[in-house]
Amino acid sequence: MNPARIVPVLLATLALALWPLAAGSYGIDFATKTMIFAILALSLELLVGTTGLVCFGQAALFGLAGYAVVQLSPADAPASLFWLLPVSMAVAAAYALFMGALSLRTRGVYFIMVTLAFAQMAYYVVHDTPLGGGTDGIYLSLKPVAEIGSTVLLDLGDPLALYYFVLGALALVFVFLALLLRSPFGRALAGIRINEQRMRATGFTTYPYKLAAFVISGAIAGLGGFLFAVKDGYVNPELLSWHLSGSVLVMIILGGIGHLRGAVIGAFAFALLQEFFKSEAIFGDFSKHWLLGLGLTIIVSVALLPRGLIGIGALLSRRLQRRVGGTL
Amino acid sequence: MSEVLLRASQLTRRFGGLVAVDGVSLELQRGTVHAVIGTNGAGKSTLINILSGELAASSGRVELRGTDITRWSQPRRARAGVGRSYQRTTIYPVFTVLENCRLAAQARHPRPWAWWADADACPHSVPAARDAAARAGLADWLDRPAGTLSHGQRRQLEIAMCLATQPEVLLLDEPLAGMGAEETERMLALLGELKAGHAIALVEHDMDAVFRIADRITVMVNGAVLASGEPQAVKANAEVQAAYLGGAE
Q1: What's the 3-state SS for B185-228?
Q2: Which 8-state DSSP code applies to residue B3?
Q3: What is d(CA B89, CA B87) in angstroms, rounded to the nearest whole number?
Q4: Chain B residues within 8 A of A205 when measuring between CB atoms
Q5: b/e map of A268-302 (b: 16 or more CB within 10 Å)?
Q6: Which of A213, A199, A219, A291 lies closest to A54 in space, CA to CA?
Q7: In chain A, which end has fewer C-beta atoms inside a 10 angstrom radius, N or C?
Q8: What is the pLDDT of residues A273-316, one digit of tens each?
Q9: Which residues in chain A are closer than 8 Å to B86, comparing Cβ atoms?
Q10: pLDDT tens-digit series, residues A154-192
Q11: DSSP calls for A15-81
Q12: Cα dihedral value B162, B164, B168, B173, nearest 10
């Protein structure tokens, strides 16, 4: 693998590992939340950036896993991480299988709308039925732990333990997807994105590939949903809303579609921009209109950086070369 | 007599009231180039689409080595040995020449579960891709992004991608389209080499090239076969001359 790509990733991982030494509880909570959204963004990147499937229902997979955590956890004792995590991911993956099996029969804008419809369906189930606790949402009474016998290996109720668990999960997802993309399966997904007709003519039955990508993406989004529910100890229907699906799409566009690093960078940039425009210290009363500032910044970023933030280096290098070439 | 690899019987394809292909029958034999000619809209590309499985026939039958494949999907036909190229180049421009061919070869050895495996080190698809690229005359261009190739080289890459799937039948839709004289010569030489091991259906408008390389010619008009036979017989056919060759000869 190219060292020019690996080194920044390793440095960023090291910086995140050291972050709790410098940050207070708010900083740790902020970074934990952002890393969870980075996992969600990576799950969508597999569909949009790799396979060319613009899914507008990713939040449903995220939120359903979160609801699974709360609904499946016993009220009187912490659940074991060893079964709750895979089951939550399986719930999201199962819904992704259902969503993908039907939505992949459509293409283009119809696909986008069908995935949105599936997400809204899940949203209204948790919003309008006792199962999801309505608009108020539901609380997780005890956070899961990893224990063997009476020895507690990991208590996710501890914010620092959760932080490092989330960092580990993000790193694992990143490495898994990086391996997946260079594998025959990943290359087939890339081929499907570029020219599905040619893939079929070559002998690939593309539907199972796309469906598998959908399920893997769902499981990863489910991992994010699990972590989010554990972090906040609370879930509400907004976790499944189209606003969140849209935000995640913006994250990967902002970071640079087609790059795993772009998805992570986009998630961090989006969260930092949100914090910036929400800051009363900087914007005073105007901070109430933070969405306006965020939206305008994203529009300008996308217009100036069509390849996303990850393309800044290449863009600056091209401009520098042009300038140097002009002066010679 | 040469072995018949692909046999189409009474193929018809209707689009509403329009009959694009009307009761066409033909046989593709190993070691022969069977050209399909006709004016624009005659139904040639539709016929190729039906033979490759991209379009379903409204009626009729397609057999591959005696097996009825009429209801087989396009990917299944491709894996069974029916390769095709398109009228418009359909390569993966961001991939290198080698990766274009490797991805095509991967269809025969998909290994989708091997998520840890490096596709570039695949012991099955990489040698097949190198071999296909070399046969198509692209051995010196393996590391070039396909999008930077000349038009003629892109058409060669289309053929290479077909070859990487190890087909027995090649359905080539206007492989000479847009080529200069030198590129045309190179492509004709390539088709001549490929003829030995394959049955080739060639849809083409370049009549000089067709009459140089084809062993059999089928002339289509309005979706139906006007004439079919050896090149000289077709060339001498008065109906063909009136309808398509403009009275040439």
Answers
A1: HHHHHHHHHHHCCCEEEEECCCHHHHHHHCCEEEEEECCEEEEE
A2: P
A3: 6
A4: 73, 75-76
A5: bbbbebbeebeeeeeeeeeeeebeebbeebbeebe
A6: A213
A7: C
A8: 999 999 888 888 888 899 999 999 989 988 888 889 998 888 88
A9: 197-198, 201
A10: 999 999 999 999 999 999 999 999 999 999 999 999 999
A11: HHHHHHHH--HHHHHHHHHHHHHHHHHHHHHIIIIII----S-HHHHHHHHHHHHHHHS-SSSPPBH
A12: 10
pLDDT over 50 (residue A212): yes
Contacts 24+ apart (CB under 8 A), A318-323: none
Give the HSE-up count for residue A279: Cα atoms under 13 Å, Cβ half-sphere. 9
Using an 8 Å CB-CB cutoff, list chain B residues near A213. none
pLDDT band of A136, cuts 50, 70, 90 = confident
CB atoms near residue A175 (< 10 Å): 12
As a whole number, the mean pLDDT across chain A is: 93
Separation between Cα atoms, residue A129 and residue A148, nearest integer Å: 37
Residues of chain B neighbouring A46 (CB-CB closer than 8 A) = none
pLDDT tops 60 at residue A225: yes
Q: What is the CA radius of gyration of chain A?
A: 20
ipTM over 0.85: yes
Q: Decide: helix, strand or coil at residue A139.
A: strand
Nearest to A202 among B73, B113, B161 (CB): B161
> Cβ(B75)–Cβ(A143) under 8 Å?
no
Using alpha carbons, list the distances in angstroms from residue B191 to A168, B78, B201: 55, 19, 11
pLDDT digits (tens, 9 = 90+) for B220-229: 999 999 999 9
Break chain B into its structural domains and give their ranges.
1-81+168-249, 90-166
List chain A residues with CB under 8 Å of B78.
200-203
Q: Which of B140, B88, B55 shows the shortest CA–CA distance to A200? A: B55
Please state which of the four CATH numbers 3.30.420, 3.10.450, 1.10.3470, 3.30.1330 is assigned to the domain occupying A19-265.
1.10.3470
| B1-81+168-249 topology per CATH | Rossmann fold (3.40.50)
Query: Which tokens belong to A184?
Result: 């025959």
Report the SS3 class of residue A154: strand
Q: Does B99 touch chain A (CB under 8 A)?
A: yes
A22 by Cβ neighbours in 10 Å (0-12 / 13-18 / 19+) ranks as exposed
Our CA angle for A250, A253, A259, nearest 5°, is: 135
Q: Does B73 touch chain A (CB under 8 A)?
A: yes
* Mutation for B interface: A1, A176, A187, most B CBs within 10 A: A187
Q: What residues contact B196, with CB distance under 8 A and at least 6 apart?
A: B31
For A209, nearest residue in chain B (alpha carbons): B112
Q: CA of B20, closest CA in chain A: separation in Å?
A: 21
- Put simply, the answer to whether A184 touches B120 (Cβ < 8 Å) is no
